[in-house]
Amino acid sequence: MSTTASAKNGTWRNWGGNVAARPARQVEPASVEELAAVVRKAAEDGLKVKAVGTGHSFTSIAATDGVLIRPQLLTGIRNIDRDAMTVTVEAGTPLKRLNAVLAREGLSLTNMGDIMEQTVSGATSTGTHGTGRESASIAAQIKALELVTADGSVLSCSEKGTEEERAVFAAARTGLGALGIVTAITFAVEPLFLLTAREEPMPFERVLAEFDQLWAENEHFEFYWFPHTGNTNTKRNNRSAGPEQPVGQLAGWFEDEFLSNGVFQVAQWVGRAAPATIPAIAQISSKALSARTYTDIPYKVFTSPRRVRFVEMEYAVPHAALTDTLRELKAMVDRSGLRVSFPVEVRTAPADDITLSTASGRDSAYIAVHMFRGTPYQAYFTAAERIFTAHEGRPHWGKVHTRDAEYLAEVYPRFGEFTALRDRLDPERLFQNDYLRRVLGA
Q: Among 67, 326, 347, 357, whose Cα sits 20 to 30 Å from the Cα of 313?
């Protein structure tokens, strides 16, 4: 199964191949009632419970030796409310299916991440985000959600509910699977619009010097820096009156499939076999993609196929700390002797009001470091993490990091609010696993 996590011989593996688990049993409930019964039965049997999406997290956030709930049958659109401009979807619905349905209905999410293989609940529970000056993560677009809690009851919450429901809503939009199992999500949507994407190479130092201006002038700005080079590829996405001018089929295949996936995959194989070649490959890779401009509906601009497997670490640092952090990262790579074959991705998000969102209460910039699957990544990630944490970085919940509850309580002002809510909703720690024990405390 190329886009989902694999489950062979009872072993579950994530997409990146760096996490494996052997659950006591795996179940695919077909309704919320069935799911609630599974949760109650697991509690009776003394087994922990975790729900899993497509396995796109690089942490063991979904791993369990208890009951693994797979969401394949909990998919589909429950309701589109054109008066409220919302869509309610089952938790296991893949983002790509949601995007396609919304587009057919003349609707769209405001912002999204750069891949759309994940389930809606997996993406929001781990804080998946794109880039935006005013528009924030996918979870920040949630208007209401429904979850099955540890006692098997179904809890619906929104910002309009009781005080307890509002507290659950604030936390459960990015709930890490710690508060219950999300069964449905209501997203805000808007009429389908067009985005014009402008992609162009730019020197690293120029991007950093002009970063505040590039950020301020564009609704969505991001860039990729190629380690061992002074080169970046920048991307600006802005709303457009049209007309639609999608990437041509041949050009799209050449840039997005042949260069970004096919040739890039071969370059990764070469780099893994002969690390000394990586700086030279990086120079070529950083110049392979030429400038281009195109206009299309949002999900076709925001998202792109990612077929080359990798392992990733990403930290959110305060927006104002971005340029210092990146300069330190570049200096570290330049003097380290490390050979880094994957570009570093840089994005932004405005502050939001979600308890454990990586942008909770502060304007944030994201720096993501990657290594090709199967290459040793620990030395690079450890050195990068040292830089990120010196700037009070917050790790992405679904990407490799070594932080624990003690550190996270210092960088999240509302950390105690989340753990207190967890004590009320899951006092017996039915949804606990090793990862949650580390990041939230016992």
A: 67
CB proximity list for 158: less than 8 A, separation 6 or greater:
143, 144, 145, 165, 166, 169, 186
Across-strand partners of 272?
Answer: none
What tens digit of pLDDT does each residue of 125-180 get?
999 999 999 998 999 999 999 999 999 999 999 999 899 999 999 999 999 999 99
Contact in structure between 186 and 87 (CB atoms under 8 Å)? yes
Residue 1: its pLDDT value, please?
25
Contacts of 325 (CB under 8 A, 6+ apart): 317, 365, 367, 387, 388, 391, 393
Position 136: which residue type? A
Picking from 441, 334, 349, 418, the residue whose alpha carbon sits closest to that of residue 380 is 334
Q: What DSSP element (H or E) covers 100?
A: helix 95-104
Query: Is residue 70 within 8 Å of 27, Cβ to Cβ?
Result: yes
**CB burial of residue 1 (10 Å; 0-12, 13-18, 19+):** exposed
Closest CA to 219 of 114, 349, 94: 349
Give 202's contacts (C-beta < 8 A, 6+ positions apart): 223, 231, 232, 233, 234
In contact, 357 and 295? CB cutoff 8 Å: no
